[in-house]
Amino acid sequence: IQSLVHIVEYGLTGDEIILHFDMITRLLYFTDYKNGIIDSVSEDGTDRKIIKKSGFVKDVVSIGNEIVWVSQGSTILNWINNYDEDRVSRALNIENWKSDSNLCLTVANGIDKNIQHPCQQNNGGCSHVCLLSGKGKVCGCPPGLVLSNNSLNCTLLGECKSDEYRCYTGECISSHSRCDLKKDCPRGDDEDPVKCLHYTPNLCPKSQFLCHDKTKCLDKKHMCDSVKDCSDGSDETDCIPQHICDLTTEYQCTTGECILRQFLCDDNLDCANGQDELNCLKNSCNNITEFRCNSG
């Protein structure tokens, strides 16, 4: 009985290690699920190399010079040429798989060409990529194209707006709907756990208020004005309780405060929402013979 040989003894921290041994090149490819680095090493433990840093790699295989991998919960098939110095990766979206299921990879060598399969004739009817799935087949599209409703033809994607996110299936949804724990895309890719881990949403400018349902950015002057501008009414919550002001000497802000009337239109924001500086008529004074009061 041969004794065990340790060929990798450092750099592995996760509970799940994915392995693939290439019988032709005699290289072992492996990845630590937690650190997301794809490594290779010779069968004697020498010549260890980092192939790619990808994050949450679920499975990896090698086909000739190509290294192919998939990530946790993703329907994107990634690959690179192992001998390409730039290590530029390419991708293919396998849209007919659900995003919450894990793709598994395998390499088949020495396939009998006499065996019939759905992709053998006319590319399975697919306009671009035909892939075997169980006893059937599914069609796939390269990046920039989306599978049409007939599940056979790939078509060009329309443009999404700058504040929108494109689902894998082609739909455009609001960017605020990404990573909000609610699946808005048909395949749920807007809640991809890997991408959401590093996703920072575009927040509203400082001068605006983001509705709690993330559907609208609202000018702060519309907060606490007794009008629900947000669909969830969040612009009218947590407002300062209003009380009665002395209207002879005071002005009541829509946010509830009472300020002296002399503070109206004095170029200082005294109301929380700046209402005291709205709709002000600025008179033109003669700097030699006239003096401008704080009231304007």
Automatic annotation (TrEMBL):
Give the protein name, as stated in the record: Low-density lipoprotein receptor-related protein 5
Q: List the disulfide bonds.
A: C160-C172, C167-C185, C224-C239, C253-C271, C265-C280
Query: InterPro entries under this entry?
Result: 6-blade_b-propeller_TolB-like (IPR011042), LDL_receptor-like_sf (IPR036055), LDLR-related (IPR051221), LDLR_class-A_CS (IPR023415), LDrepeatLR_classA_rpt (IPR002172)
Identify the species of origin: Schizaphis graminum
Q: Which CDD domains match?
A: LDLa
Instruction: Cite the GO molecular-function annotations of the record.
Output: low-density lipoprotein particle receptor activity
| Intracellular or extracellular location(s) | Membrane
The record's Pfam families line, in alphabetical order, gives: FXa_inhibition (PF14670), Ldl_recept_a (PF00057)
Q: Does the keyword DNA-binding apply?
A: no
Q: Which UniProt keywords apply?
A: Disulfide bond, Glycoprotein, Lipoprotein, Membrane, Receptor, Repeat, Transmembrane, Transmembrane helix
Q: What is the gene called?
A: LRP5
Q: Which domain of life is it from?
A: Eukaryota
Q: Does the keyword Ligase apply?
A: no
| Any single Gene Ontology cellular-component annotation | receptor complex
Record Gene3D superfamilies: Low-density Lipoprotein Receptor (4.10.400.10), TolB, C-terminal domain (2.120.10.30)
Topologically, how does it sit relative to the membrane? Answer: Single-pass membrane protein
Q: What is its main location?
A: membrane
